[in-house]
TrEMBL record:
Protein name in the entry: Heme o oxygenase
Keywords: Cell membrane, Disulfide bond, Heme biosynthesis, Iron, Membrane, Metal-binding, Oxidoreductase, Transmembrane, Transmembrane helix
GO cellular component terms given for this protein: membrane
Taxonomic placement: Bacteria, Pseudomonadati, Pseudomonadota, Betaproteobacteria, Burkholderiales
Pathway, per record: Porphyrin-containing compound metabolism
GO biological process, one term: heme A biosynthetic process
Organism: Mycoavidus cysteinexigens
Pfam families: COX15-CtaA
A GO molecular-function annotation: oxidoreductase activity
Subcellular location: Membrane
Topology with respect to the bilayer: Multi-pass membrane protein
InterPro entries: COX15/CtaA_fam, COX15/CtaA_HemeA_synthase
Length: 362
């Protein structure tokens, strides 16, 4: 019964953006639907970060409901009993609502993607994209939902939490790519096409850095080094990389079941911090180079600004002891960087296709 209630909640939330899209004038309702879904996905990624940063991931220790109910309001007795039994534990009424709001938004996102599938196949002869795109997105969000369930049932196992984050950003990026395909684009100068490999490398470096950041967050290693630019007063502090990057283990434990050491947490933090220099230098150089193209100037400036923002918020997280707002901005900045690089890659790919088309005519 509560599964039906959860579904109705997701549908009701999804009806708000669906109604907005339907009431908009113009023929390109599918493109508007994809953009609205992309925005909701970005919001969901941020809310997922908020859920993790507020330690609300186990606010409802079962899945998909909360103590077998569709909302914390219905399950309030079980929540209060759990909180009374373990006041410092992960279950409180506030955390339960945060966790369930995250699930409600995920359900609404699933409804919007199902709507995309229906519209895409009904209008497949007139759409500029393949109807299989939304189908692939639907499969992806189902996989993402499975990892969301395992995040809870496996008690925030770091590798599951990290994969859950990466899948969420993959969904965000795929939706953004689909949205770009549904709208006209300004074609950059032909010379911009030679920078596509550099953009791809930048995107790959960013994905690695996001994965490292997810691993830091999943292992609560943000404050493993609280000084800068050194760590515990040393450029190369004692570190245990083997234990720190042991993937399949419980939160806070080694594979053998012992408590994870401080040296392992330092290794996790140190790797993310120092790889950030590699990513920043590459993206800053790329942004400066791409500013020469008028059609890419806004995106290039955005790239420079976001890299600067990420460096500042990353440093602030260390020096200010991981404030919630700064951590959220840092997470959101990473997602925006991903979107921006996808947009750059798409525009440069259009430029390369234009060059090839011109060469073929000659």
């Amino acid at each position: 019964m509560f599964i039906l209630q959860l579904s109705l909640i997701g549908i009701c939330i999804a009806l708000i953006p669906l109604a907005w899209v339907w009431l908009r004038s113009g023929a390109d309702r599918f493109g508007k639907l994809v953009w609205v879904t992309t925005i909701l996905t970005f919001d969901l990624v941020l809310f997922g970060s908020f859920t993790r940063l507020t330690d609300s991931g186990l606010g409802c220790p079962d899945w998909p409901g909360c103590y077998g109910a569709a909302s914390p309001f219905i399950a309030h007795q079980a929540i209060q009993a759990a909180q009374a039994a373990l006041p410092s534990g992960p279950v409180t009424m506030a955390k339960a609502w945060i966790e369930m709001m995250h699930r409600y938004l995920a359900l609404a996102l699933g409804v919007l993607i199902i709507a995309q599938v229906v519209v895409a196949w009904c209008k497949r002869k007139t759409l500029p994209v393949s109807p299989w795109w939304p189908v692939a997105l639907l499969i992806l969000i189902c996989v993402q939902g499975a990892f969301g369930a395992w995040t809870v049932t496996l008690k925030l196992q770091p590798i599951i939490v990290t994969i859950h984050l990466l899948l969420g950003l993959t969904l965000l990026g795929a939706l953004a790519r689909l949205a770009l395909s549904c709208m006209p684009v300004v074609v950059p100068e032909p010379a911009a096409s030679r920078w596509q490999p550099a953009v791809w490398i930048g995107l790959a470096l960013l994905v690695v850095q996001i994965a490292l950041g997810g691993w830091v967050s999943a292992n609560y290693a943000v404050l493993a080094c609280t000084d800068f630019p050194t760590c515990h007063g040393a450029w190369l502090p004692p570190m245990d990389f083997a234990q720190g990057f042991q993937l399949w283990r419980a939160l806070g434990q080694t594979k053998a079941g012992d408590f994870i050491t401080q040296d392992a947490l330092v290794a996790i933090h140190w790797t993310h911090r120092n790889f950030a220099w590699v990513v920043s230098v590459w993206l800053l150089g790329l942004g400066l180079r791409l500013r020469q193209f008028k059609a890419l100037l806004t995106l290039a400036n955005g790239l420079l600004a976001l890299v600067a923002l990420q460096c500042l918020t990353g440093l602030a997280n260390i020096l200010l002891q991981w404030p919630l707002l700064m951590a959220l901005v840092h997470n959101g900045g990473a997602a925006l960087l991903l979107l921006l690089l996808i947009m750059l890659n798409y525009r440069i790919a259009i430029s390369r296709q234009s060059v090839r088309h011109t060469a073929a005519k000659v």
